[in-house]
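User: For a reading group we're discussing how well predicted structures match intuition. Take Vacuolar protein sorting-associated protein 41 homolog. Before you show the prediction, I'll give you the sequence so everyone sees exactly what went in.
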Amino acid sequence: FEVFKTKAYDEEESEEEPKLKYERLSNGVTEILQKDAASCMTVHDKFLALGTHYGKVYLLDVQGNITQKFDVSPVKINQISLDESGEHMGVCSEDGKVQVFGLYSGEEFHETFDCPIKIIAVHPHFVRSSCKQFVTGGKKLLLFERSWMNRWKSVVLHEGEGNIRSVKWRGHLIAWANNMGVKIFDIISKQRITNVPRDDISLRPDMYPCSLCWKDNVTLIIGWGTSVKVICSVKERHASEMRDLPSRYVEIVSQFETEFYVSGLAPLCDQLVVLSYVKEISEKTEREYCARPRLDIIQPLSETCEEISSDALTVRGFQENECRDYHLEYSEGESLFYIVSPRDVVVAKERDQDDHIDWLLEKKKYEEALMAAEISQKNIKRHKILDIGLAYINHLVERGDYDIAARKCQKILGKNAALWEYEVYKFKEIGQLKAISPYLPRGDPVLKPLIYEMILHEFLESDYEGFATLIREWPGDLYNNSVIVQAVRDHLKKDSQNKTLLKTLAELYTYDKNYGNALEIYLTLRHKDVFQLIHKHNLFSSIKDKIVLLMDFDSEYLHKLFKRDHHKGQRYHEKQISLYAEYDRPNLLPFLRDSTHCPLEKALEICQQRNFVEETVYLLSRMGNSRSALKMIMEELHDVDKAIEFAKEQDDGELWEDLILYSIDKPPFITGLLNNIGTHVDPILLIHRIKEGMEIPNLRDSLVKILQDYNLQILLREGCKKILVADSLSLLKKMHRTQMKGVLVDEENICESCLSPVLPSDAAKPFSVVVFHCRHMFHKECLPMPSMNSAAQFCNICSAKNRGPGSAILEMKK
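Assistant: Thanks. Here is the predicted 3D structure of Vacuolar protein sorting-associated protein 41 homolog, as structure tokens, for the group to look at:
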């Protein structure tokens, strides 16, 4: 079916995705319209009813196949109406015939009037016995209602304003249009609610009929000529406003003008679908002609509207059609819109995710199509994610974006080994094996060895560095190692000194466990990886005669060995002291600290010979000669901070005394001590020894700091005291609660004095028992009488042993 974007859309907007898709209703409809012409149609969720100019009514399925046919009249069918159940149908025709009958029952109304009947509408709930009502319209609007005796009686709802040309019944409200305007009638209150006058009275109402559409039970949409009133909302009137007015009123929420003549209306969520009749002027003849009808999706605003989409439809015979020949019917349940014309019925439906993907693929927006398919994979029916992905890869390859195409293979091909191999051969055909090589799977899945070998040969022919990189990155079990080794050796015959190929060959030998050949190549290249090879595969027996060579091309070998394992090269630690002292002093002190195998006397001798003060200080302190180490810091380094730090680390009172004695005649040292010893030594000891009249730098600041430190210590002690008091009180309360608890006394307990059971054998006999908090129990008569000075009684056992409460429990646990 051919659809054109309207001229209102510029070139950029034409790239926007359509909102609807179209197809002709074919099968039986095609056969009908070859001999007859469509005059009206109504839509139910289950089927369609089509009326023709030759007085036939056809019931169709949603594919357009004829399921039933009724010969109603020899002339044009004007309107068909169905109730919500789809079980009853009303039909009216140009010769005045009116029929209302059940599609699956025998009930029927049949009458012929003396004038053409233009409209008919059955009650939406006609299937109910209480709702046997319908309206017809010709020169007047009649309401028919079946009485309790199964007789039909009619009531005139309106007349005198020309022919009734349109009617829509929803819920309890009937809306109709005549030559003067639109009326709404409330079937419950039997009141006419409103009159909406026609805007453009210059148009013939028979040529440009009114279009009515209920959006819901209280919202009516009116289209007439070029005017659309959206939305006529029926509202309840407040009791205080009623007087002699109807209980309901209508409020027009939005109204706007359209460019063309309205032929039909339908709701689409909060938007409108508008079928328009279009007339244009020929540029050649300057005469007016009938153009393709338009189907627009419009967003109503308060005084205007926004056009969302606009399509020009190539319906059959549009050149001869008039505005009154077009009708727009819709199915609420599925958002299907039927454009009815004499020679054609076109179905418009909202585009689904498959249609969205179709459009993206058509516009070559493959990445967006792939993303849309992944997001909606449960809802798409015609597309497969893999097919879209493969099309995307082909598109990228055709465009020359080989690297992007190869990168996308990881996500699109996933674990499908067969597809991977297929794509690799495609890349080979276009000479782009290098582009796909970084993205080949290396684990799950694993491709045929031939695939990996093919890529390695490609690199070996043109890019040694790339070849070496793949050998390093790819596991050796992906390809036939011997085949690649032979290929490398063949290339070395042409370029025997190529270091990249030699190193790569060594790696291949290593994977093949041919360590001897690998070691020989590394030694030839003087490559540092030789040490890793030796350690990893325990090749020390193979290098006994090559130690000097190894040391020659890697002077840091012992240092690296020590960093890797402090114990492995312990026999060389004494030698390392001399080497560090000679060539690498910054690493000497860290070595002395970490090594547990170096001879300290030898190290001290070397450091003293070279006057390495820091190293000597460390060795003296490690050997237990802290006083000499401190003396060296003070006399050689003259660093009071380091001396104080050293004294703090050793935490030795004699060292602090030595430090004070050494510093007492050196004002800078005194300042340093005053600033730092407050937390380790009583500052008074130092202050008392300072000579009167000695000038000490920053003495005031130092004394202030001592006082601040002292104040901080007092505050800390007070804080700790508060915490201890609070904890003691908490524990005391806990102990008191524990001691206040009851104690179980049974026949197993004995008196600690007489060793007989505490409880008497005769429970009726009176007795007295004393139980102490220590859990010792006595007969009252077995305890000695309390002294005259104190009425309190004490446990004899605990008092004798000087034990506290609960001791009996501890004794039992023991």
